[in-house]
Design a protein that fits this description.
The chain is of the alpha+beta class and 123 residues long. 20% of the residues lie in helices and 28% in strands. The protein is globular.
């Protein structure tokens, strides 16, 4: 017996809408994931999800009134109960202008901190 093919709308039912605001450079540095293709951001969460799940994120950065809408995918999961890291998910930015725009803005805000070896939420 094969599983029925779900219509597109039903497949999107796993997608989530999240909001995240950064107030300072240190917390943005800890959450930014430059090693992901197109960049990404770590979102503290205990919401169950799987790699590849779609996430719509409204991201607010310090010193910026813009709320960046990001339609990304889960590319990293730190499970609840991890000894050294905060539970949450890493959201990969999309390979489009919206993803490139938020990545440029984050890297502009972080500046030379990008070269730091300080630990982050993921590595």
């Amino acid at each position: 017996m094969t599983e029925p093919t779900l219509p597109h709308a039903a497949r999107l039912s796993k997608s989530a809408v999240m909001s995240l605001a950064f107030r300072d450079r240190a917390s943005l540095y800890a959450a930014y994931m430059p090693f992901l293709k197109n960049g990404g951001i770590f979102v503290p969460s205990t919401r169950p999800c799987e790699l590849g799940d779609e996430v719509f994120l409204l991201l607010t950065l310090m010193q910026d009134d813009t709320r960046y809408p990001i339609a990304g995918t889960v590319a990293w999961i730190t499970p609840e109960g991890s000894a050294r890291h905060t539970a949450g998910i890493g959201i990969r930015f999309p390979d489009d202008e919206s993803g490139a725009r938020v990545r440029r803005r984050i890297e502009e805000l972080l500046g030379t901190a990008l070269a730091s070896s300080r630990p982050t939420h993921t590595v």
